[in-house]
Amino acid sequence: MADFSSLGLSDWLVQQCKQLGINKPTAVQENCMPAILQGRDCLGCAKTGSGKTAAFVLPVLQKLSEEPYGIFCLVLTPTRELAYQIAEQFRVLGKPLGLRECIIVGGMDMVSQAVELSNQPHVVVATPGRLADHIRSSNTFSMSKIQFLILDEADRLLEQGCTDFTKDLEVIMGILPAKRQTLLFSATLTDTLQELKSIAMNEPFFWESTSETRTVEELDQRYILTPEKVKDAYMVHLIQTLTDQHDDWSIIIFTNTCKNCQILTMMLREFNFPVISLHSMMKQKQRFANLAKFKASVYKILIATDVAARGLDIPTVQVVINHNTPGLPKIYIHRVGRTARAGRNGVSITLVTQYDIHLVHVIEQQTKTKLKEYPVEEKAVLKILTQVNMARRQCEIKLESTDFDEKREINKRKQLILQGKDPDLEAKRKAELEKIRSQKKKFKQKIQEQVQRQKCGQLKKKPMKRQHVKATE
Ligand SMILES: Nc1ncnc2c1ncn2[C@@H]1O[C@H](COP(=O)(O)OP(=O)(O)OP(=O)(O)O)[C@@H](O)[C@H]1O
């Protein structure tokens, strides 16, 4: 197996790695770093927790130490928390260089960001929306000398999910030099491979780990089959059991909406669990503060939406619970990848209701693994069922009395405005679409009823015909 020196890193960088316990390159590092150091574009696809960040940070620092000038490297990433994490890796590994990095993400002060950008940092780590805003609104910085463009979680940046980055990416690409190295990394590149290849140029080097499965071997993947109405009781019982048995374990619970995230947090607090939440309706400072408290194990349980599904590297996380079964295998892979990182063990437990069984089958097919049942003592769950459901209802009522829904509406409107859309027109369009859809549904129903009636009529007619024939015979 190669060591970092033989891959082309200078002694100072090898020493920096050692200080962080990074002694031997992982497969993605061993394979991608030489190509990057040779100046090639690179697409790297490796499992969660396999060291993809260092696979691009180390070669960038190596090149920067040889030729430092201007804004040297731009890293784009889908979430704000991830931007801070990546910037920290640059800061720690690049300390001997006196590296100046700057983080450009939404929810933080734009003026101080503009000042930092105009001071020509070596590395900019950004979420696309906020960086595009800076490009649109000021000309106090230049990215024309960029040597490296890195898209971390590249497939997420290109897909048109609930946050669509494509327009912002266009703005950003517009100010970057054509001559640059482009590096794209993710644990799930394959769906968007062709698009990604077109962003990278010069025959990119492509490396994908050859493993059979798409999740790590150290991860024990489980499921619990539960009726929808008993799901929360199963979750409370599960957390109680896990925290009783392992008081040093940290747990992340993923759920599908901000509102659910809020309600579950309130509900688990009723049961005195040390819970904290992370979702996109929280103020950014609160998001960072909560994540920091979870990382420092001040709170052992984090309830989050998919804003925390990708990239976050928190070694103490031993368990991931999916409160809802993810609708896409890709989301499942990233969520459960928050545990069992860098060779450690971990457990994932997915709560599966009667409506989600087909989703589990698709997940199993795509990840090429079989989820095993997690044994639960049903009697114990039934004992707490009424108490849990009552607590949930009370929390729902409490939340309804706050301005949470109103804030959500305002947030939606803000998002639409940022996308250049008129919220009122959009609402009208949505209502019209809904009307058309319901008309279509009614029309379809009518036709079906008619066909059904005709069929019945024919069935009744047929024996009559036979009778008639008989009669004439
Ligand atoms: N060569 C190495 N030896 C040991 N640990 C390493 C090595 N390289 C990176 N690590 C550590 O492994 C952990 C996971 O790395 P990283 O966050 O880069 O994973 P990733 O592949 O980007 O995962 P994800 O797909 O979830 O974003 C980090 O704590 C990092 O410090």
Question: Short summary of the structure?
Answer:
This protein is of the alpha/beta class and 473 residues long. 50% of the residues lie in helices and 14% in strands.
Determine the CATH topology of the largest domain. Rossmann fold
Given the helix and strand composition, which structural class is it?
alpha/beta
Kindly provide the name of the CATH class of the largest domain.
Alpha Beta
Corresponding CATH architecture of the largest domain: 3-Layer(aba) Sandwich
- Strand tally: 14
CATH superfamily of the largest domain: P-loop containing nucleotide triphosphate hydrolases
Instruction: List the ions, cofactors and other small molecules found in this model.
Output: adenosine-5'-triphosphate
Percent range of helical residues? 40-55%
Largest sheet: 7 strands, parallel
Uncertain stretches: 463-473
Mean pLDDT: 91
Widest β-sheet, arrangement of strands: 3-4-2-5-6-1-7
**How many domain units?**
2
Radius of gyration: 27 Å
Instruction: Write down the oligomeric state.
Output: single chain
Rough outline: globular
Distance between the termini: 94 Å
List descriptors.
single chain, about 475 residues, alpha/beta, Rossmann fold, 2 domains, about 50% helix, globular, disordered C terminus, binds adenosine-5'-triphosphate
Describe the 3D structure.
With 473 residues, the protein is an alpha/beta fold. The chain has two domains: 204 residues, 3-Layer(aba) Sandwich (Rossmann fold); 194 residues, P-loop containing nucleotide triphosphate hydrolases (Rossmann fold), CATH 3.40.50. Helices cover 50% and strands 14% of the residues. It has 17 helices and 14 strands. The chain has a seven-stranded parallel beta sheet with strand order 3-4-2-5-6-1-7, with helices on both faces. A seven-stranded parallel beta sheet has the order 10-11-9-12-13-8-14, with helices on both faces. Helix 3 packs across helix 4, helix 10 crosses helix 15 and helix 13 packs across helix 14. The longest helix is centred in the last third of the chain and has 50 residues. The chain is globular, with a radius of gyration of 27 Å. It starts with 10 loop residues before the first helix and ends with a helix. The C terminus is likely disordered. The chain binds adenosine-5'-triphosphate. Adenosine-5'-triphosphate (ATP) binds next to helix 3. Its EC number is 3.6.4.13.
